[in-house]
Amino acid sequence: MIDTFNRGLLNFLAASPTPFHAVENMANALIDAGFTRLREGDEWDLQRGGRYFITRNDASIIAFVKGLSDEVETGIRMVGAHTDSPNLKLKPQPDIYTKGYWQLGVEVYGGVLRAPWMDRDLSLAGRVTIRDTAGQLQNLLVNFEDPIAIIPNLAIHLDREANDKGAPNPQEQMAPVLGQCDDDHKPSLNALLLNYIEANYSDLQVDSILDHELSFYDVQRASLVGINKDFIASARLDNLLSCYIGLEAMISAGTDVSTVLICTDHEEVGSMSATGAQGPMLESLLRRWLGSDETVARVLDRSMMISVDNAHGVHPNYVNKHDNNHGPLLNQGPVIKINANQRYATTSETSAQFRTLCADAGVACQAFVTRADMGCGSTIGPITAAELGVKTIDVGVPTFAMHSIRELAGSLDSFNLVAVLKAFYVMKNAPGAAR
After folding, report:
1. How far apart are CA 119 and CA 150, in angstroms?
2. pTM above the 0.85 mark?
3. What is the structure's pLDDT at 434?
4. CATH superfamily of domain region 87-218
5. Comparing C-alpha atoms, which of 256, 260, 18 is closest to residue 126?
6. Which family does it belong to (predicted)?
7. Hey, where are the domains in the chain?
8. Which one of 85, 215, 289, 407 has the minimum C-beta count within 10 Å?
């Protein structure tokens, strides 16, 4: 079962180079599992036992089950993750021509670990918005798949201090090279996209390309590595790994209890957008679903959110970067993330609930607290807790090299966390301590 799960995870990671692709793949999986797509602009008629999902801007998705049990009695079981990952995103007018080379200008999206992007085989993917010959606007998914670009390092002979310096400058030293050109025959992104659309959307008549949201990505596929295949190495483990975990749990959940899976965009840049966790997407859905403010308040009081995002595993080469008592190990279970300054939303009550779920599922769990002299990242957990007032816990799979172009996680942890989330989704008693 673990092998089957990991093969599915690896395929999902490979097929999801951008949030747009991840959401399309999740939507297709939900449809195959019997979920019904709803449009936010349509009138809804939600039925008990119904399984539904919505998307927004093609990059955020919420799947939900309107359970057979009354939500006022049981509450709603919620799991949250995010679809975006740090990357190099194309600028609006990216074409650069220098010394006979064609490059594309990029800006850094999120907290990219920049140095690992050098000397990698890169492709380009995302969304393009066009106007067709009938005057209609259309969004098209794009994924070149083949390695079409690279960011070469400067030779050590030309910079003897290179190993002592910091990361490359993203404005001056990280424009990917796509090929060579001359003054009479200059390639362009627009021409490249038109050729792609002609080859992949043969029935579409394009009048003009109006805009794009495109990012470079490493074409090396996700893989199991290590003598005993102990690890998963891949781009975008933060946080597509959590999206896949939540998806697998949601698809297998029953219809007795109301459940939600929300995977939003823009977490890596603060979540403040129409499609981010700090936007109105989840609250809007809950109000349409539950009706009055009175009902929403009563349901949320009996509900709980598990925010799932990767945790920092203790690195064997950097052990001193962790608190001695809180260094999570890969393949030793999901991690409860705790921070006194509310960078994580975990409370003793939600932690106790999660530990109970782990024990009942036969899964070990760990705890992470950052060193007292170091800063701490954050997640959608505190944002969702603040927006909704729902009991929330932050958990995740321990990971190395977070925000690198290729990250590393344990090959057992995701499968074990799915087991815990499956138990959470079918839990009938309202979460929380006795009152």
Report:
1. 6
2. yes
3. 57
4. Aminopeptidase i, Domain 2 (2.30.250.10)
5. 18
6. Belongs to the peptidase M18 family.
7. 2-85+235-425, 87-218
8. 289
